[in-house]
């Protein structure tokens, strides 16, 4: 389990296709602290550490992950938000994030608010019931509060610290991001779905 509080930004060094899977070597300030078989959030995707070499580590994404996330767009130089799992005695500074991406969204608008930035994203309308005004969402592994919610879009405000310490500063209009909706909302939605049958 994660919190959506990004610890560092890594950089993709190498991408290798192996059958239907893709392996990635990523360089980061935390790579040397990882352990083999450890679960680490990469842009909101929970991936297993397979190898470590100095300040670099290797992870692999299977076809299911590649189909449902933005990992298929990763290439050499891609910045990656990284977060280790929440320790049992840690603080939940963001919100409960599983590292299980539900969908992707497209960045449709970026507005400089003279001190902060507003980013608007378009999502599949079938997920509209999982986004609420002032609710939590994980975007590329970053815990954010959403507003201006419509049936197929939402907006987030990025403060200077988040802009400078995550990969959000590299985001451009048209880019695809990973989205994980609030787990509490998903359980309630499932309960209501079953209740109506």
TrEMBL record:
Signal peptide: none annotated. Pathway: Cofactor biosynthesis; riboflavin biosynthesis; riboflavin from 2-hydroxy-3-oxobutyl phosphate and 5-amino-6-(D-ribitylamino)uracil: step 2/2. Lumazine-binding repeats lie at residues 1-95, 96-192. Residues 1-95, 96-192 form the Lumazine-binding domain. Keywords: Repeat, Riboflavin biosynthesis, Transferase. It holds the Pfam family Lum_binding. Its EC number is 2.5.1.9. It catalyses: 2 6,7-dimethyl-8-(1-D-ribityl)lumazine + H(+) = 5-amino-6-(D-ribitylamino)uracil + riboflavin. GO terms for molecular function: riboflavin synthase activity. It comes from the Bacteria. Catalyzes the dismutation of two molecules of 6,7-dimethyl-8-ribityllumazine, resulting in the formation of riboflavin and 5-amino-6-(D-ribitylamino)uracil. NCBIfam families: PRK09289.1 (NF006767), ribE (TIGR00187). This is Riboflavin synthase. It comes from Polluticaenibacter yanchengensis.
């Amino acid at each position: 389990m994660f919190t959506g509080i990004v610890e560092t930004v890594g950089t993709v060094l190498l991408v290798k296709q192996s059958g239907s899977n893709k392996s990635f070597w990523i360089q980061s300030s935390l790579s040397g602290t990882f352990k083999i078989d450890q679960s680490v959030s990469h842009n909101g995707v929970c991936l297993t550490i397979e190898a470590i070499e100095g300040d670099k580590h290797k992870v692999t994404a299977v076809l299911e992950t590649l189909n449902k996330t933005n990992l298929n767009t990763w290439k050499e130089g891609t910045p990656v938000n990284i977060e280790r799992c929440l320790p049992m005695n840690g603080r939940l500074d963001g919100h409960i994030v599983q590292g299980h991406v539900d969908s992707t969204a497209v960045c449709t608008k970026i507005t400089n608010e003279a001190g902060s930035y507003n980013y608007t994203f378009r999502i599949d309308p079938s997920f509209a019931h999982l986004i609420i005004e002032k609710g939590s969402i994980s975007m590329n592994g970053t815990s954010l509060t959403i507003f201006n919610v419509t049936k197929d879009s939402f907006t987030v405000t990025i403060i200077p610290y988040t802009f400078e310490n995550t990969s959000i500063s590299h985001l451009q209009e048209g880019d695809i991001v990973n989205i994980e909706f609030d787990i509490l909302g998903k359980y309630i939605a499932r309960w209501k779905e079953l209740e109506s049958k």
